[in-house]
Amino acid sequence: MTDTEKLAEEVARVLELPTDELTEELPELLADLEGEVEVLALENPLLLSDVIDRVGDVDVAEFAAENPETVDQFQELQWQGVELLAQFSPDVQQSIEEDTTVNFEATDAPMASHLELDADAGAVSGGAGLAETPDLEIRGPANTLTALTTGQLDPVSGYDDGQFEMDGSEATGDQLATTMGKLAEKLPDN
C-alpha cells in the first residue's frame, strides 16, 4: 500500500467519526494533507468533496476561535481543491471574464481568506489571509462563508437573503457568482 493510499484511508476513517471527535482529529489530519492535495484529489476525486462536506457539520466559528492555524490549513486545502477543479474545467475557465480579487472575512471568528480569478489564464487561486487590494469584500458568519466558498450556499440567494455583506460592484459580484456556481457544479456528488 502506498503512502497516498494510507493517507486516503486515514482521511476516510476520520471523516466517519462523530463531530466532536472529528474536531479533535481535524488539526492533525489537515497537517497530514498539506502538500498532498493534488495527488490525493487526482487519485480519489471524492476525497476533497468528502472533507469539505464533513467540515460543514462543524461549528466553524467555535472551531476557528480554538484552532486558528487549522482553519488556515482548511482554507488552503479548500482553495487548492478549487484551483484543481478550475484547471480541468473549460467552462469554469471561460466563465472568468475579468481579473477579480475577493476577500472573505468572518464576522464571528478569526477566519479570513482570499480568492483570485485570472481571466487571461482562466485560473482560480486563493488561500488563507486577506489580499491587499480586493475588488470585492465579503463578510459574514464563519459558517455562512464556509458554505459560500465550498459551493453549499448559492451566492445570489445568500446575498439576497442578507446572509452576508458585500462591498464592491454588483457586476463583479455577479461574475463571481457565475464562476462559483460553475465550480460548485464540478464538486463530485457523494
From TrEMBL:
It holds the Pfam family SCP2. Residues 151-172 are annotated as: Disordered. Residues 101-179 form the SCP2 domain. SUPFAM superfamilies: SCP-like (SSF55718). It comes from Halorientalis regularis. This is SCP-2 sterol transfer family protein. InterPro entries: SCP2_sterol-bd_dom, SCP2_sterol-bd_dom_sf.
